[in-house]
């Protein structure tokens, strides 16, 4: 969001992304992927890092192939890192790393998944004590258990992201 004369002004591109995400959540995955890819083309490789991070994050969710999902999630993390260390971005890191952990589980790469779930846990200190933060911390705990990182043994591999883990 930008500020204009003391008022918060909605970011038009983030609003458009949100509209496409609603389409995806409504069940039209293919159309959502097409529209998100159109937005990706529109902003280009040099678009604002926050826009690229958000787009890549949601584009990952529209792919069936775990390798494609991983590629988009890696783009999201790279864009977040380019954005800098603002409070806004620091709050995204736990979710970004959690998504990468889920991608690596799907690809049978448990050690890479463990690395990212540890990073998610470390980054979780930036989360607020609200429903979003509580949800991310709970999802991290579930992934830790699946990977044998928490108390008890994990359930193994096979599940993808939960509906909550797909969105911010």
In terms of topology, how is this protein built?
Elements lengths: L1 E3 L2 E3 L2 H14 L3 H15 L5 H13 L4 H18 L3 H4 L2 H14 L3 H14 L7 H16 L16 H4 L2
Antiparallel strand pairs: 1-2
Helix pairs in contact: 1-2, 1-3, 2-3, 3-4, 4-6, 6-7, 6-8, 7-8
Mean residue pLDDT: 86
- Output the helix-strand order: EEHHHHHHHHH
Q: Specify the overall morphology.
A: globular
Cα end-to-end separation: 16 Å
Instruction: Supply the helix-strand structural class.
Output: mainly alpha
Major pleated sheet: 2 strands, antiparallel
The portion of residues assigned to helices is 55-70%
Rounded to the nearest angstrom, the radius of gyration is 16 Å
Placed side by side, the strands forming the largest sheet appear as: 1-2
Tell me the number of strands.
Answer: 2
β-strand percent reads under 5%
Low-confidence parts: 3-8, 151-160, 162-167
In DSSP terms (H or I, runs of 4 or more residues), the helix count works out at 9
Task: Please name the defining characteristics of this protein.
single chain, 168 residues, mainly alpha, 9 helices, 67% helix, 4% strand, disordered C terminus
């Amino acid at each position: 969001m930008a500020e204009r004369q003391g008022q918060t002004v909605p970011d038009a591109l983030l609003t458009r992304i949100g509209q496409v995400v609603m389409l995806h959540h409504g069940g039209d995955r293919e159309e959502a992927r097409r529209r998100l890819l159109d937005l990706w083309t529109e902003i280009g490789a040099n678009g604002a890092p926050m826009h690229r991070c958000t787009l890549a994050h949601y584009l990952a969710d529209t792919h069936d192939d775990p390798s494609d999902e991983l590629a988009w999630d890696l783009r999201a993390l790279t864009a977040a890192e380019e954005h800098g260390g603002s409070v806004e971005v620091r709050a995204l890191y736990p979710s970004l790393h959690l998504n990468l952990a889920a991608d690596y589980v799907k690809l049978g790469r448990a050690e890479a998944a463990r690395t990212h779930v540890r990073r998610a846990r470390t980054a979780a200190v930036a989360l607020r004590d609200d429903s979003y933060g509580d949800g991310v911390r709970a999802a991290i705990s579930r992934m830790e258990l699946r990977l044998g990182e928490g108390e008890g043994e994990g359930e193994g591999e096979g599940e993808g992201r939960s509906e909550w883990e797909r969105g911010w």
